[in-house]
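Ops channel
N.P.: pipeline sanity check, posting one input/output pair.
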């Protein structure tokens, strides 16, 4: 298995993870943020160079053309440069193997976490931002990065002796539980660890392949049924009031066929002063849950494209019996029920699963990488 990394992709993940932390608030308008333009130009330059100098497969060229067209349509409809950044990351990553992309993400996120947490411990960035976040915008972001690093390492070293790393993994899990209180990341870390420990068990391919369709269907059904049955309030409580948010925006905006530029309710200065720390969940500006987020913002057409991409990727992984990636996918798909970043264009570099899926689709085989 190749354990190489791409320097530009690693640097990009490292930089944008820091850019999305409280570093950008504490050092607003600092010259360091102009580096993002250099990184973008480097990525574009590399893509153009490869298109000119490398003999690319027809399928790869078709994927790049489709991604460019998709990016132009999304940008014209939503006017959000974050979405264009997702497509740039996807096109750039498509020139590398899945293992290189995973390794680059793992290394970039590792150094970003060390950097931001280190600055918070030194007092340069706040450790607390309403909750304990260690320099990040919220504990869920740090929880996601820790889980992604740990899960990526196990996926890349699936058949190695990982006893020492498993000790580190358990310590990270303890941090998720005791300090960050990130229940989603905690559950996913426990689940992935169990799947790794019992990795010799057979995979039910039908459940795996149909899971993206199942997840989006369940999310929609829960949204529609919320408030009509008492048990939905219990589910809402278990999912930290996400059903309440989904149902609110579902009733407000409905579900369209094509993408729309929507706005989220946020508390104004008076409401912040009035409610203090008890701001109603609807006024928090949050919308967690990739499946409902995509349905409401991207519409039926784009959401179906995302589901098809994930389903084809899972089919190919099952066909090659790559359990390390099948389990990684399954846990991230479960994670995406309550979190948005792994499957949303708007979170660009964090849409880890979509970027890998696009690579898997046009590759003849990825088994040689693992």
């Amino acid at each position: 298995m190749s354990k190489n990394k791409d320097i530009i992709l690693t640097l990009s993940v490292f930089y944008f993870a820091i850019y999305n932390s409280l570093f950008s608030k504490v050092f607003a308008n600092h010259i360091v943020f102009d580096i993002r333009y250099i990184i973008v130009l480097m990525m574009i330059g590399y893509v153009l160079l490869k298109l000119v100098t490398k003999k690319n497969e027809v399928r790869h060229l078709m994927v790049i053309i489709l991604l460019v067209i998709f990016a132009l349509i999304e940008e014209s409809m939503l006017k959000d440069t974050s979405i264009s950044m997702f497509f740039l990351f996807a096109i750039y990553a498509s020139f590398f193997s899945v293992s290189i992309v995973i390794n680059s993400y793992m290394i970039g996120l590792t150094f970003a976490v060390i950097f931001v947490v280190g600055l918070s411990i030194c007092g340069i960035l706040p450790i607390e931002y309403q909750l304990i976040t260690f320099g990040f915008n919220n504990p869920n972001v740090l929880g996601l990065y820790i889980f992604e690093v740990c899960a990526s390492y196990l996926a890349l070293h699936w058949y190695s002796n990982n006893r020492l790393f498993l000790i580190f993994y358990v310590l990270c899990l303890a941090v998720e539980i005791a300090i960050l209180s990130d229940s989603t990341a905690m559950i996913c870390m426990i689940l992935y660890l169990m799947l790794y420990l019992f990795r010799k068990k057979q995979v039910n391919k039908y459940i795996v392949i149909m899971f993206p369709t199942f997840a989006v269907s369940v999310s929609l059904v829960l949204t529609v049924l919320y408030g009509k049955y008492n048990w939905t309030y219990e589910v809402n409580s278990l999912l930290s009031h996400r059903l309440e948010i989904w149902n609110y925006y579902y009733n407000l905006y409905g579900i369209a066929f094509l993408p729309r530029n929507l706005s989220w309710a946020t508390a104004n200065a008076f409401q912040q002063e009035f409610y203090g720390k008890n701001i109603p969940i609807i006024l928090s500006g949050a919308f967690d849950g990739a499946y409902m987020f995509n349905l409401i913002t991207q519409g039926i057409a784009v959401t179906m494209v995302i589901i098809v991409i994930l389903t084809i990727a899972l089919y190919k992984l099952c066909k090659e019996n790559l359990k390390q990636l099948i389990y990684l996918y399954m846990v991230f798909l479960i994670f995406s029920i309550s979190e948005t970043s792994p499957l949303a264009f708007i979170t660009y570099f964090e849409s880890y699963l979509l970027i890998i899926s696009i690579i898997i689709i046009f590759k003849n085989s990825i088994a040689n990488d693992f």
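N.P.: looks fine end to end. The CA atoms of residues 36 and 146 lie 23 Å apart.
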